[in-house]
Design brief:
This protein is α+β, with helices and mostly antiparallel strands and 307 residues long. It has seven helices and 21 strands. A hairpin with a 2-residue loop joins β18 and β19. α3 runs antiparallel to α5. The protein is globular and about 55 Å long. It starts with a helix and ends with a strand.
């Protein structure tokens, strides 16, 4: 698909926004990286469905929410399409008191789920307040923190396929693991909504827990600097941060990228970091920990694009 064809699609009834050469540093939390040849921000789910249905089946697509787990290399994201789903309306609440469920769209910041649950006297969602991404991203990678994970609370999900068709899927249709979610049957589908189930409880207790977790996050993570959260998955029986710190890597810098002095599993942009700086530092950390501890750290963040 060439640019002219995309422009024709954009002018034939779609209500979203097509951009060319869009700087992706504006859309990722590291605030670094190159441009995407083409991005599309759908107006709503209906618009997204129409747009996907008009794309050729072989057109590679990258879904981007808040960009809190993504690095786009300095050469940019070429010959593919970037869908900026953070533009989707986020106010899609349907509380179901009888079943203790409610739905949420994928573009909504996942922290809103925690707050909504607490306001409605539900408990168990508090950990979500510490996750910086969207509901869609949390579903796609089974995001978690403080010992809890997103899919522990998922009652069902709604997906959209490349033809723009919607489906309802049950949790048992996926293989869910640590920072991993895969359909048991191969499908080219994207999460567009989720139903969450939490236990009835004391909203005041839930709000107090949220405040405690956020205070802990502020005290132990470099939130004042651009970062992408935890860079590496915790290896079985250990913590990536401990291994990185034990290798003496806290404060190690390459260009404008630094292993955080606050939390060793965070890499921060000190102001002018390039995507290359960040990626080289990631590799340095992996190589050093493998040499010192004989452990190969697996990335939690996704890296795309051309160098």
């Amino acid at each position: 698909m060439d640019m002219a064809e995309l422009v024709q699609i954009e002018t034939s009834g779609l209500r979203g926004e097509l951009r060319r050469n869009e700087p992706m540093r504006k859309h990722v939390s590291w605030r670094a990286g190159g441009a995407a040849d083409r991005t599309y921000a759908p107006a709503d789910l209906d618009d997204l469905g129409v747009f996907l249905a008009r794309l050729p089946e072989n057109e590679p697509v990258l879904f981007v929410g808040l960009g809190s787990n993504l690095l786009v290399r300095d050469g940019g994201f070429r010959e593919r399409l970037c869908l900026r789903t953070a533009s989707l309306p986020a106010s899609f609440w349907k509380k179901r008191p009888a079943t203790r469920k409610f739905t949420q769209k994928p573009a909504s910041p996942v922290r809103k789920v925690a707050r909504f649950a607490a306001v409605h006297n539900l408990e168990g969602a508090e950990f979500l307040a510490g996750i910086p991404g969207t509901v869609g991203g949390a579903l796609a990678m089974n995001a978690g923190c403080y010992g809890a994970e997103t899919w522990n609370a998922v009652a069902r999900v709604r997906t959209m396929d490349r033809g723009g068709r919607l489906q309802i899927r049950e949790p048992q249709e996926y293989a869910v693991g640590y920072r991993s979610v895969l359909p048991l049957q191969a499908r080219d589908e994207f999460f567009v909504a989720a139903w969450f189930r939490f236990a009835r409880g004391d909203g005041e207790v839930a709000r107090r827990k949220i405040k405690e977790l956020l205070s802990k996050r502020i005290a132990t993570q470099p939130l004042a600097e651009s970062n992408a959260g935890s860079v590496f998955r915790n290896p079985p029986g250990d913590h990536a941060a401990r291994l990185i710190q034990a290798s003496g890597l806290k404060g190690r810098r390459i260009g404008g990228a630094e292993v955080s002095t606050v939390h060793a599993n965070f890499i921060v942009n000190k102001g002018e970091a390039t995507a290359r700086d960040i990626e080289q530092l990631i590799v340095l950390v992996q190589d050093t920990v493998r040499r010192d501890a004989d452990v190969m750290l697996e990335r939690e963040v996704r890296i795309v694009g051309e160098a």
